[in-house]
Amino acid sequence: MTFAVDVVTLFPGAVADYCATSVLGRAREAGVWRLRTLDPRDQTDDAHRSVDDAPLGGGAGMVMRAEPIVRTVRATPDLARPVIALTPAGRPFDQDRARALATTGGLTLVCGRYEGIDQRAIDLVCDEELSVGDVVLAGGELAALVVIEAVVRLLPGALGNEASIEEESFAEGLIEYPHYTRPAVFEGLAAPAVLLSGDHGRVARWRRAQSLVRTLERRPDLLERRGGLSDEERALLEEFASPPEP
Ligand code: SAM
Predict the structure, then answer these.
(1) How do residues 159-185 score in pLDDT, each as one tens digit?
(2) What are 184-237's pLDDT values in tens digits?
(3) In angstroms, rounded to a whole number, what is the distance separating the alpha carbons of residues 16 and 10?
(4) Domain 169-240 annotated CATH 1.10.8.60
(5) Domain parsing of the chain, residue ranges
(6) Domain 3-152 is of which CATH architecture?
(7) For residue 117, which atom of ligand 1 is closest to its CA?
(8) Is 111 exposed, middle or buried (0-12, 13-18, 19+ CB in 10 A)?
(9) How remote is the CA of residue 118 from the centroid of ligand 1, in Å?
């Protein structure tokens, strides 16, 4: 079944353009997913089609009004669920959430602008809030695209090589091993000799060891979350004791 994505945005063109390129574009053409953009300005009654107003209580900037967003959601009976607001205050988006969302059949992403969305719109029509990192973007569109791309590439038929999903970063609570392609030596830097050995078993073990070393060095929080290293993983690290082989 085609995975349904609805995006509530003041910039439908920006979202649609990106979704027409590369993996997302090909997967859409193949019928793996569909995109529909909904502009809250279409749910305004005033001549200026205004979607923002000054913050209650004063302060800088403008706030996205609740009504156009709530009306947009309610005026679309076949809206995809869950409805997710993109906000810096949301739960951090990660690969586990992407995997879970890929099984839902669809989702709606609500993009904020200005100082953010009137909280009542989020409370009334959104199921959850997601953040794409501890950074502040100018709008939710890039955040929505992050979610869309992470989810869509996990859908069956979206990628040419499904195996790459199983091996990539975060698949087992680890970040991925480094990649190399030809030439074997570039600007004096040789690719690891094991990759040229033709010994597939050893290559697989080296890659897993690299994955473990990198996660230990760069993301010990991920290892902690998965309960540390197994005995087999410790043995693997000893087999390819640091520094990594040239
Ligand atoms: N005043 C807000 C704050 O300090 O948290 C920032 C609002 S931001 C300029 C405008 C919109 O961009 C937000 O309503 C949200 O939709 C989106 N946005 C910005 N950063 C984001 C992030 N890290 N994750 C998800 N959405 C984000």
Answers:
(1) 977 667 777 889 889 999 999 999 999
(2) 999 999 999 999 999 999 999 999 999 999 999 999 999 999 999 999 999 999
(3) 12
(4) no
(5) 3-152, 169-240
(6) 3-Layer(aba) Sandwich (3.40)
(7) 14
(8) buried
(9) 12
